[in-house]
Amino acid sequence: MKRFVVGITLAASAWVCAGIYLILAAQAFGRAAAQGNVSFLGEGAYLLGLGVLSWAVLLFLGSLFGIRLPRLMRKKNR
Questions:
Q1: Is the pTM of this model over 0.90?
Q2: If pLDDT is split at 50, 70 and 90, which confidence band does 25 have?
Q3: Is 2 helix (H, G, I), strand (E, B) or coil?
Q4: Could you give the C-alpha distances from 40 to 7, 14, 22, 43, 52, in angstroms and in order?
Q5: Are 31 and 37 in contact (CB under 8 A)?
Q6: What Rg, from alpha-carbon coordinates, does the chain have?
Q7: For residues 19 and 59, what is the distance between their CA atoms, to the nearest angstrom?
Q8: Cβ neighbours of residue 24 under 8 Å, at least 6 residues apart?
Q9: DSSP string covering 7-74
Q10: Are 17 and 53 in contact (CB under 8 A)?
Q11: What is the pLDDT of residues 36-72, one digit of tens each?
């Protein structure tokens, strides 16, 4: 039961973390569009990449505790 709770906690934190980074990236892209400042585009791209990376790592760690990976990350059986 402890493994399941740890896995669910890691998976939930992955989605929350990804959502936070997505919001921050959207704000940076919006600032870049509103102010015409190109440096905010780099910041938005950095935040988006960091969010995807943290989401993937936390979901992978959750999968080690028995939580299934999303369809996007699963291997395809052929």
A1: no
A2: very high
A3: helix
A4: 35, 25, 14, 5, 18
A5: yes
A6: 16
A7: 14
A8: 47, 51
A9: HHHHHHHHHHHHHHHHHHHHHHHHHHHHH--THHHHHHHHHHHHHHHHHHHHHHHHHTTTPPPPTTTS
A10: no
A11: 888 889 999 999 999 999 998 988 888 888 888 777 7
